[in-house]
Amino acid sequence: MGYDFVIRNGTIIDGMRLPRYRADLGVIAGKIARIGRIPAGAGAQEYDATGLIVAPGFVDLHTHYDAQLHWDPWCTSGSWHGVTTVVMGNCGFGFAPLNPADRERSMLSMTRTEQISLEAMQAGMRIDWTTFPEYLASLRKMPKGVNVATYVPLNPLLVYVKGMEAAKAGSPTTPEQLRRMQELLHEAMEVGAIGFSLQRLGPNSGQADYDGTPMPTDLMSEEDIFALCDVLRERDQGMIQWTHGDRA
């Protein structure tokens, strides 16, 4: 049998809780066709993995590559260490949905919480979306060296629906606004979001906005959070990433 490529003499850790072992690995059409001893010359391309680990890619469940992905499609240094899938939109931080007038303001929030420079985001990000479906469509078109999954971050969702001032003040959400947030979460889940995320650390949040004030979700009511949980319950799908005090 001929292989598109063969990785030879690697130390295989296959994720099945078996002891590591030395073997060759043959690939055809992007899929592993054989693990074992493969005759010399059987691969159109051959790679010597002597002294190296051959393993499935790692899934990094908590990243903040939301901005960096735009100028670093490999999401370094994660991919250098075997990460092949990244999950973004954690802690309620992100860039969708996003009104055009709030673009720079959303970047400012990341300068403190994730230590990303405003200048890098302004130079490296091409924001061509407003809604979450448009954001995912933009991500799909973007060249990437890793797989990407993302939550709906609730900070931009609150600002998008309530406006910056009301969201930052923790003003009560009207029934109409809450219905709109539920609709937008449904819409995002329909196109591929994996759930929603937030941090709720209260008025003295240690992970504050760029100006030292709490993030919108820090002051979000439990009733609003549970109303968004109802969306996932109705759909019977999705996850919640919630940073709450010393719990996450």
Tell me the Rg in angstroms. 22 Å
Overall mean pLDDT stands at: 96
Shape: elongated
CATH class of the largest domain: Alpha Beta
Weakly predicted, low-confidence segments: none
Could you name the CATH homologous superfamily of the largest domain?
A: Metal-dependent hydrolases
- The number of distinct β-strands equals 11
Plain-language structure description:
The structure is a single chain. This protein is α/β, with parallel strands linked by helices and 248 residues long. The chain folds into two domains: 3-54, Urease, subunit C, domain 1 (Roll), CATH 2.30.40.10; 58-243, TIM Barrel. Helix content is 30%, strand content 23%. It has helices spanning 103-113, 118-124, 132-141, 154-162, 164-169, 175-191, 222-235, and strands at residues 3-12, 21-28, 31-36, 43-48, 53-54, 58-60, 83-88, 147-150, 152-153, 195-199, 239-243. The strands form three sheets. Strands 1, 2, 3, 4 and 5 form a five-stranded mixed sheet that branches. A hairpin with a 2-residue loop joins strand 2 and strand 3 (31-36). Helix 6 packs parallel to helix 7 (222-235).
Reconstruct the topology from this structure.
Elements (H helix, E strand, L loop, with lengths): L2 E10 L8 E8 L2 E6 L6 E6 L4 E2 L3 E3 L22 E6 L14 H11 L4 H7 L7 H10 L5 E4 L1 E2 H9 L1 H6 L5 H17 L3 E5 L22 H14 L3 E5 L5
Parallel strand pairs: 1-4, 1-5, 6-7, 7-8, 9-10, 10-11
Antiparallel strand pairs: 1-2, 2-3
Helix pairs in contact: 4-6, 6-7
